[in-house]
Write a structure and sequence with these properties.
There is one protein chain. It is built from 3 helices and no strands. It has about 90 residues and is mostly helical. The chain is elongated and about 65 Å long. The termini are far apart.
Length: about 90
């Protein structure tokens, strides 16, 4: 257990940060999954819609400090590549 006021404060801060990060991690996974499912189903409009949400959300998380800029860009780039394979398929 904490013996100093500063240690008690660090514990409180860690709990809050852990909760916040858990929410963001789950949200990132769900958004990514939505894009991938739309691509797998072959629905271009839905895939583009979900990709737009992913792009906005990931870059918003950069400003909140959850992602570094390069991480968000890499994830968005990979999703864009996936969505573009759907738009290039001959129908």
């Amino acid at each position: 257990m904490a013996n100093h006021k500063s240690a008690e404060k660090r514990i409180r801060q860690t709990v809050k940060k852990t909760e916040r990060n858990r929410y963001y991690r789950a949200r990132v996974k769900n958004i990514t999954k939505a894009v991938r499912e739309a691509v797998e189903s072959g629905n271009l409009e839905e895939a583009q819609k979900q990709f737009k949400i992913a792009n906005q959300t990931f870059h918003a998380y950069v400003s909140k400090g959850f992602f570094k800029k390069g991480t968000a860009s890499r994830r968005v780039s990979r999703l864009a590549k996936l969505v573009n394979t759907l738009s290039q398929k001959p129908e």
